[in-house]
Amino acid sequence: MASLPRKHLFDLPEGVIYLDGNSLGPLPRGVAERLERCVHKEWGEMLIRGWNDAQWMDQPARVGNKIARLIGAPEGAVVIGDTLSIKVYQALASALEMRPDRKVVLSDNGNFPTDLYMAEGLLRSLGRGHELRTPPPEEVADAITEEVAVVMLTQVDYRTGRMHDFTAITQKAHAVGAVMIWDLAHSAGAVPVDMVANNAEFAVGCTYKYLNGGPGAPAFIYVRPDIAETVRPALSGWLGHEAPFAFDLGYRPGRAVERMRVGTPPVLQATALEEALSVWDGLTMAEVRARSIELSERFIREVETRCPDLTLLSPRDPMARGSQVSFGFSESYAAIQALIERGVIGDFRAPDAMRFGFTPLYIDEGDVVRAAEIIEDVMTNRLWDDPAYKARSRVT
Amino acid sequence: MASLPRKHLFDLPEGVIYLDGNSLGPLPRGVAERLERCVHKEWGEMLIRGWNDAQWMDQPARVGNKIARLIGAPEGAVVIGDTLSIKVYQALASALEMRPDRKVVLSDNGNFPTDLYMAEGLLRSLGRGHELRTPPPEEVADAITEEVAVVMLTQVDYRTGRMHDFTAITQKAHAVGAVMIWDLAHSAGAVPVDMVANNAEFAVGCTYKYLNGGPGAPAFIYVRPDIAETVRPALSGWLGHEAPFAFDLGYRPGRAVERMRVGTPPVLQATALEEALSVWDGLTMAEVRARSIELSERFIREVETRCPDLTLLSPRDPMARGSQVSFGFSESYAAIQALIERGVIGDFRAPDAMRFGFTPLYIDEGDVVRAAEIIEDVMTNRLWDDPAYKARSRVT
């Protein structure tokens, strides 16, 4: 029984081929109704009692468990909340405390900028002479030395889909005594991840991309269970306290990863996310990955055959590539505008990438071929060469 | 024309007198429909284009401006996002950088615990020998000395409603060269606040209490405009960057208070909040405050007359009290359970407070008298003396 695609589980607009689920996943069908129920029946009728009666208080751990399954983490090792930037900060601050005598944080210059910005802000605040090193991604492995306190990388490159060697890098980090943090922003729901096998101390990620949690959906954080009770939270908020409603004056960290909770959880966003995660029921990431590779390979073949002016920016080896494909073109910003106007939604990433995400939950082979035909039309007929497209403002 | 109450703007359950809007405000009538539109028409149909076409990207500043009006702040001085705990951390981290040679953070032992926890975590991370002092609230003014780097207080006490002298404390802080941070969690939408006149450097607050933004609604932060461009954010996320979509490797703080944005904004929560704030259209905080005092005074009079076993924990002078009234009673937890079961929703705060919030938007004199009658029934007939109430779990 083919369990993919599952288009019937999504509210996709007519006539759109959505290849931007790696930026914002589409609306899963049950979410609107679930959210309406949360608003009317929980907030509206239960009012303050919703914290108990609708189990809002446990939601961050409950939703965390649903994500845990998709990243190969055990129950009780993941919580949701805040934004990915905040979760990066929490992981890095705790990791640095585990290696007080080392002064180097190693990332790479392909990391998503906010990870680097948050690190920069933290290291500046600490004022202890830490150094943030950002070599090119292909030189990271060699840069893991005994000076390094923390290796902090995003597994899948946001522009090209290039994947780091997840296992080898963690092993190398541990071999030199460094702490490993993986950002799974473009991994969770896109490629199989096994946090237990990987053995990294921390992982973080977002849920509005391949997990379809909606705009501004909360982030997640994983802490390896054997260290979770010794990790010291820098952002020690009341909901990460052992007993939030005792209202003690002093902070005592909560149980395991729950100490990574900070403030009052975003119940509306978390409810949308919780419902959105049900589209994964009964699916394995291995199935998703196999279909994602088929779709991406077909897309590359079709586009390269039809559009000689486009250059593949993503790794050609599917095993070294996440669930997205990028092509380079000097006018890629305008070309993406032309495509969007013709129903193929991808996105632009500076300086010159046309980026397309493949999510086998709602994309099939027919969509891929049709998208390639439309890209061919835009390229062959120079439809991108329109001042209106070039002038369009670049917010996202 | 009496503009209060505005009960018709809220979906309040039949038979409930809601005196807990100081913890979670009730559902404003337009919110469900607005959120449904955001889910279907924006997320569902615009998909990634919502960031531009539905103006999600500007929402934190746009909603911030609506809050600015309610706290006497100018346009462009407030943004929303994250949780109050995170905003406290941001304000304190930036404030400490403004006074690098001083080592004392002064708060009080009546502050809401998460403010103290976040300060504790920050000071520990910094590891520079800072000290967090928490004298009793009535001793704070005298504790403001030239050692103090930052004075960080919550204006209205969460348990008793006691108010700090907003003007005098800021003046004293400035007189000794300290930076002032006010937490307006129980002030915004409850009492008139004039940040311009007050002249404090920072203010933070939450929006799910008197501002009725819904469970987990985002927090807000105000930075005084004349210093906003020099403040250095500790949580330097990409949406606080001068040009987030340039994807530069280095952080450059954004314009004014926008640098206090961190990660991707919670669009669903922010949309609920934005709509919820429309219940304030055409109202002044002076009107709200006047009615709130009338209601609270009537409540105290009624309860004290009817229930001699209850002790007023709140200040008797309405000018020294926010928009809530607390009574002490040895079995107040059970008594609150009995009240909730009879339709009067207040809440319990350790160790022995029965807490009632007054929000003239949807509470009127009739509600106050009826609530007092039900409290009298619970007290006179010892309805609190029920093992089921005493055993009920204490999540909130």
UniProtKB/TrEMBL annotation, chains A, B:
Native source organism of the sequence: Thioclava arctica
Pathway: Cofactor biosynthesis; NAD(+) biosynthesis; quinolinate from L-kynurenine: step 2/3; Amino-acid degradation; L-kynurenine degradation; L-alanine and anthranilate from L-kynurenine: step 1/1
Catalytically driven reaction(s): L-kynurenine + H2O = anthranilate + L-alanine + H(+); 3-hydroxy-L-kynurenine + H2O = 3-hydroxyanthranilate + L-alanine + H(+)
Cofactor(s) in the UniProt record: pyridoxal 5'-phosphate
Residues the record lists as binding pyridoxal 5'-phosphate: L84, S85, F112, P113, T114, D115, T154, D183, H186, Y208, W238, T264
Listed HAMAP family: Kynureninase (MF_01970)
Protein name from the UniProt record: Kynureninase
Gene this chain is encoded by: kynU
NCBIfam families xrefs: kynureninase
EC number, as in UniProt: 3.7.1.3
Keywords: Hydrolase, Pyridine nucleotide biosynthesis, Pyridoxal phosphate
Top EC class, one word: hydrolase
Keyword Hydrolase in record: yes
Residues recorded as bearing N6-(pyridoxal phosphate)lysine in the entry: K209
GO MF annotations, alphabetized: kynureninase activity
UniProt similarity note: Belongs to the kynureninase family.
